[in-house]
Amino acid sequence: MSAPVSSLDLLDLDALLSEEERQIRAVVRQLVDDRVRPHVAGWYESGQAPIRELAVEFGKVGLLGMHLTGYGCAGASAVAYGLACLELEAGDSGLRSLVSVQGSLAMYAIWRYGSDEQKQRWLPTMATGETIGCFGLTEPDHGSDPASMATRARRDGTDWVLTGTKMWITNAPLADVAVIWARTDEGIRGFVVPLDTPGVSTREIRQKMSLRASSTGEIVLDGVRLPATAQLPAASGLKAPLSCLTEARFGIVWGALGAARDCLRVALDYAVHRTQFGRPIAGFQLTQAKLADMAVELQKGYLLALHLGRLADAGALRPDQVSVGKLNNVREALTIARECRTILGANGISGEYPVLRHASNLETVLTYEGTSEIHQLVIGQRLTGIAAFS
Question: Which residue intervals define the domain Acyl-CoA dehydrogenase/oxidase N-terminal in the entry (predicted)?
Fold first, then answer.
């Protein structure tokens, strides 16, 4: 009997990483092992996680806005950020979502499109986790088609007055500040909205069957008056929020692999130690075929993510390439999670094992920040030159 290897050692992929990248990965993996794994099943079952406490701990190791520069951000490479997302989602998709929304949506929007005053006010404490941010784009009736958003911002003297509702907003129930996108007479614009502003209310979305270790909510804006300085000065049109989504989708390309790797790790260990018909189930051909196919898809997804990361670090990554990564890696990760559940049999539905939790979370990851169908259309447009969205 030969010595087994872990699911990502099959092709010696560590050789493709720098020493610094491996060190960053090790720090995040240790943090997840120490702080997340012992508790996450309970957080998931109760539907409550200590988000604020975790944000501060993530901030201490530089995970929040880690790929941004200045304002207390780590200025890490895209690949290092991706590896961090992979390790976080190996713990739970909801915790990777916390980091993605904080850093790649809320912080990135302010960092990329904000004024110097906005950056100085918000980014340093967002990087430490003392301030929690969220990103208000999706609405109850406008998900995949954000250009049709109903939230309005109108001028009243030098002020702006915002009215509308945002839905399915990660971090909203406990956030301190939101980046809100609204329709104006000049087109779509972004606004930095402290959530203690009069007229703002939030509501936690309950009874979720997925991402239960994440805080998700609704934001209602009822005639919210903001000074002119609340507007993101460099954000004009729909391209601005979509560029933020591209940043976050890049993290998903990597993160989904973490969930898949964790499922495969558990399934491999279970198959080696679970005996049926007088032998470990890992010794049966059908089980080995499942394990082999899943390991191959995991390697391919990792190579895709790494290629996209190297493109990003070279400043050459396109949004449609991120769509390729999100479409493939989330879809394959979900397939792996479901297949691993079959190897665990009835134990696969037990909270004692993370497999069904990962599978349930990935159902949401498959949908948010661009459904599979939307990414297929993005890729289709790139291939044909024809937009099929309408």
Answer: 18-130
Average pLDDT over residues 189-216: 97
List the domains of the chain with CATH numbers.
13-128 (1.10.540.10), 133-230 (2.40.110.10), 239-384 (1.20.140.10)
What are the helix and strand counts (H, E) for the chain? 12, 9
Beta bridge partners of residue 20, listed in sequence order: none
Band of residue 7 on the pLDDT scale cut at 50, 70, 90: low
pLDDT tens digit string along 129-160? 999 999 999 999 998 999 899 999 999 999 99
At 118, list the tokens. Answer: 């906005």
- Residue with token string 């890992």: 282
- pLDDT at position 9: 80
| pLDDT above 60: residue 3 | no
3-state secondary structure of 122: helix
For 310, phi then psi, to 5°, come to -65, -40
Alpha-carbon distance values, 378 to 16, 121, 383 (Å): 29, 36, 9
How far apart CA 48 and CA 68 sit, in angstroms, is: 29
Task: Confirm if 160 and 228 have CB atoms less than 8 A apart.
Answer: yes
Residues, the chain, total? 390
Given a cut of 70, is residue 1 above it in pLDDT?
A: no
CA distance 343 to 299: 20
Residues 237-263 as b or e (16 or more Cβ within 10 Å = b): eeebbbebbbbbbbbbbbbbbbbbbbb
Residue ranges of alpha helices (H) inside the chain are 19-31, 40-46, 51-60, 78-91, 93-100, 108-113, 116-128, 239-273, 285-313, 319-344, 355-367, 372-384
Q: Are residues 8 and 261 in contact, defined by beta-carbon separation less than 8 angstroms?
A: yes
Among candidate residues 218, 332, 369, 373, the one labeled active-site is: 369
- Single-letter amino acid code for the residue at 97: S
Q: Is 369 one of the annotated active-site residues of the chain?
A: yes
* Alpha-carbon gap, residue 19 to 10, rounded angstroms: 19
pTM of the shown model: 0.95
Cα–Cα distance for residue pair 254/308, rounded to 1 Å: 10
The C-alpha atoms of residue 15 and residue 34 are separated, in whole angstroms, by 26
Backbone angles phi, psi at 60, to 5 degrees: -65, -30
Q: How many Å apart are CA 257 and CA 254, to the nearest integer?
A: 5
Region 276-299: mean pLDDT is 97
